[in-house]
Design brief:
Helix 1 packs across helix 4 and helix 2 packs across helix 4. The chain starts with 18 loop residues before the first strand and ends in an 11-residue tail after the last helix. The protein has a single domain, classed as 3-Layer(aba) Sandwich (Rossmann fold). It is of the alpha/beta class. The radius of gyration is 15 Å and the shape is globular. The protein contains four helices and four strands. Helix 1 links the parallel strand 1 and strand 2. Strands 2-1-3-4 form a four-stranded parallel sheet.
């Protein structure tokens, strides 16, 4: 796939910042929330993108609302396909439920994140639960990558 998206630009070859690609199927919910958290926590000290194996038509309304509750506006994003260029540029590829439809490049670091929602939660409550699980994982990833969190980023 050729990179025709308006996402963060690809880093220059001499850019030492870590780069992360968040992938899911529709690229309308979980991967967008992960990207929003990553940008909030890492700022410009790292690079991140999101993509989907089968991008949907729009963002999940509950994902937008849940992230807005935390002061993170993801409404400027949109579902988009992953690209070979971003996949090659990523140091870490986080997959979220796309299984065999997510790309695999040997030599890349991959993590597959799944999220358990307690029984009885649905709609916005379920999305809030997943949002908070994503935040914890993104926080751990930022620290693991050696990225100094943004000043005032919630620990």
């Amino acid at each position: 796939m050729t990179d025709t998206t308006s996402q963060a630009p690809l880093p220059a070859e001499d850019d030492a910042r870590p780069a992360v690609l968040f992938l899911c199927v529709k690229n309308g919910g979980k991967s967008q929330m992960a990207l929003g958290w990553f940008k909030k926590l890492a700022g410009n000290r790292a690079v991140a993108w999101s993509g989907g194996s089968e991008p949907g038509k729009s963002l999940s309304a509950t994902a937008v609302e849940a992230m807005g509750e935390k002061g993170i506006d993801i409404t400027g994003e949109y579902p988009k396909p992953w690209t070979d260029e971003r996949l090659r540029a990523a140091d870490v590829v986080i997959t979220m439920g796309c299984g065999d439809t997510c790309p695999f490049y040997p030599g890349k670091r991959y993590e597959d994140w799944s999220f358990d929602v307690p029984e009885g939660l649905d709609g916005l409550d379920a999305t809030r639960n997943v949002r908070d699980q994503i935040r914890e994982r993104v926080w751990a990833l930022v620290l693991e990558l050696g990225v100094q969190p943004e000043p005032g980023a919630p620990a």
